[in-house]
Amino acid sequence: MAGYDGATLVSYTVAFHHATPHGVLSAIHIPDAPEPVPESVVARLHVEEAEFARTLRGYRQVQFVGGRLAIRSALQQLGLASTPILPNERGAPVLPKGLSGSITHKRDLALAMVARDALGTLGVDLEDYAPPRPSIAERVLVAEEIEALQRLAEERRWIALLLRFSIKEAVYKALDPYVHRYVGFHEVMVRPDLHGWAEVTLRLEKGEGPFEAEARYEWLFGRIVTSVRIREAQTDTQQVAAQS
Ligand SMILES: CC(C)(COP(=O)(O)OP(=O)(O)OC[C@H]1O[C@@H](n2cnc3c(N)ncnc32)[C@H](O)[C@@H]1OP(=O)(O)O)[C@@H](O)C(=O)NCCC(=O)NCCS
After folding, report:
1. How many CA atoms does the CB half-sphere of 212 hold within 13 Å?
2. Is 222 in the pocket of ligand 1 (CB under 6 A)?
3. What is the tally of structural domains in the chain?
4. Strand partners, 213
């Protein structure tokens, strides 16, 4: 991560790599503008990814290319060869068997996190701290979370809301491989602690699960990065069977 200052931005180059408890995080500088991605950059992708990128326009193309370069970079950090990573029908990146990965982009940065999937599937999200958008509270929070925010000092409420928003977006990405459906913000409850971790409670309307979810957050250069790892929880019967 050393050396990143955000100011000396060279588009489509590595901004930083960062090891986290959930996986390797790689970041790529992207231009905060909708101009077409130069063909010389598109050509750096795998052929199938490049074909897909050429069908995209504006910011979508910039973000897709940045995300693919980031995930390739993260795979390289794990010492793994990069293979074409195409979106499935729900927009999720499809990684080779045995791996999980997730992508997020915001303005001038694309991030990807990759890990082996033995401990679960990954979701990652990146959010700007500023400007505060307190009006999202009603859409994002359940009643218990609104009450928790009201108990906080006024100046701490926005960060408490932003953390929950970001972690829920990461939950969505990590959960998608199991549920394959839109999961609403009100189906998830998040309780961040002060040490970079958060408790996640899933109240899935269609009764899927049970799942174990682990969430964490950290500040990176004035932004918040959250990641979530989800796996299917073993039922009591499965645990007994595994031990016998
Ligand atoms: C899908 C969603 C989470 C993406 O978040 P976003 O802030 O719009 O965009 P981000 O830059 O953070 O993430 C975009 C990346 O998400 C990934 N993504 C998209 N759909 C996905 C899915 N169904 N599952 C997993 N990852 C997905 C893609 O990799 C995409 O980047 P790419 O197209 O370049 O590959 C968001 O648009 C959404 O629909 N949210 C509403 C549902 C929700 O968050 N519920 C919370 C409770 S679970």
Report:
1. 7
2. no
3. 2
4. 230
Instruction: List per-residue pLDDT tens for the chain, 244 residues long.
Output: 544 555 446 899 999 999 999 999 999 999 999 999 999 999 999 999 999 999 999 999 999 999 999 999 999 999 998 899 999 999 999 999 999 999 999 999 999 999 999 999 999 999 999 999 999 999 999 999 999 999 999 999 999 999 999 999 999 999 999 999 999 999 999 999 999 999 999 999 999 999 999 999 999 888 999 999 999 998 766 666 666 6
Answer yes or no: is the C-beta of 37 below 6 A from any ligand 1 atom: no
Please tell me if the CB atom of residue 173 comes closer than 6 angstroms to any atom of ligand 1. yes
Closest CA to 228 of 120, 134, 70, 95: 120
Q: Which atom of ligand 1 is nearest to the CA of 173?
A: 25
Ligand 1 pocket member 101 (CB < 6 A): no
Quote the pLDDT of residue 235.
72
- pLDDT of 241 reads 67
CATH code, 137: 3.90.470.20
Residue 166 Cβ contacting ligand 1 at under 6 Å = no
Q: How far is CA 63 from CA 8, 101, 149, 158, 188, in A?
A: 19, 16, 33, 27, 27
Q: Is the CB of 52 under 6 A from ligand 1?
A: no
Residue 217 lies in a domain: yes
Report if residue 6 sits inside a domain.
Answer: no
Ligand 1 atom closest to the Cα of residue 67 is 34
Q: How far is the CA of 3 from the centre of ligand 1 (A)?
A: 29
- Which of 57, 91, 119 corresponds to the end of one domain? 119
190: helix, strand or coil: strand
Looking at 68, 90, 119, which one is the last position of a domain?
A: 119
How far does CA 123 lie from the centroid of its chain? 4
